[in-house]
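Here is my example:
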Amino acid sequence: MPRRHDIDALRVFAFALLIAYHLGMVYVAEWGYHAKSTYQAEWLQWPMIALNRWRMPLLFMISGIALGLAMAARPGWRLALSRSWRLLLPLLFGMLAIVPVQAYCEALGNGAIEPDFGAFMARYLQLRPWAGGGWSGAEYGITWNHLWYLAYVWTYSMLLLALTPVLESAAGTRLRNWLFDRPRIFWVLVPSAWLFAGLWWLMPRWPETHALVGDWYAHAKYLFFFAAGWLVAGEARFWTGLVAMRRTTLALALLAISLELSLRAAGRYLPPGDIPAWALRVDWAMIERMARATYAWTALLAIFGWSRTLLDRPFQWLPSAREAVFPWYVLHQSLIVPLAFSLSPLALGPWLEPLLVGTGTIAGCAILHMRVIARIRWLRPFFGLPPRPSRQASRYSTTSWMASPPR
């Protein structure tokens, strides 16, 4: 099948944004994270809110597209085995060998343990609850932190593969044809309504936890995006429609996020005495959720539509960047957290410190990937790479690179 260079490029760009977002988490005021700097800025909340609404949905939808394309090329059982190997091995390895440094820095910063990483690891690897551990996941004795995405993508992949006979039946085909024959406004309104229902009804009852079990709002959201990616993967009518409506979806997305941020700013900064009586009778929370849901979906439609137009070409940098994504994803937060934790006490200033943390993270990922991981055959699968590097990275099959997760 023809290579989708636009999806390749989106995967790389989405990961780059993930590094920037997790770096921002160190410095954004009022938001919790595994390590926080003394230099925190409230203004960072606004661009991070705008990014947060679609950054993870984009990754889940890309992985759903991966599954949809892969299901057309491989038997289901082989695909299940391949996905399990490519997702679960890096997840388990990461939880045991990569993520613990984040928990150590978090516990040390909270004053829950004494400085001794060796002693911490000896206790961590016992894999039993750690009362008063002072780090995210201590109640379980182990954590996956930023690697939670791998567990969710694997679960959703196995679910859709198990439902393959139903999804690919004659009734399933008729349903798909019916969906894609609807007016394009249907593609905007119905998914937005689903996301709004999740925000309005599920989120207050089951806030997002990334614990997999009982995370009902997150599943209603992320499984939707994953299944949507699977559904549209090879559907030419959808991609043609996205390109045609890319300006409209971009305008809708900008309007929706402007409304959401304006309402948030009004609630945060507007003195209660300055609010007119008529405004107090309006359900602004519902309007804010409607704007948030509309923005999340239309932003994705605009991103995919514009990337199909601008990025579907074989950029020279793309093959090497494509292979780097998975190792960098596994490594990056376990560099950000200890770097921020170590540099924060030095009072380097609000510009130099984040510059050093960001530069150190990128340099660390590049060195570890190119000088260590990529060169050691037995180590490569632990970071989502095949044991043997391809002689021509640009010839990686769509299913082989997309079967692994992007973040």
Q: What stands out?
A: The chain has one domain: 5-99+144-270+301-402. Residues 392-407 have pLDDT under 50 and may be disordered. The radius of gyration is 22 Å. Residues 252 and 298 are 7 Å apart (CA to CA).
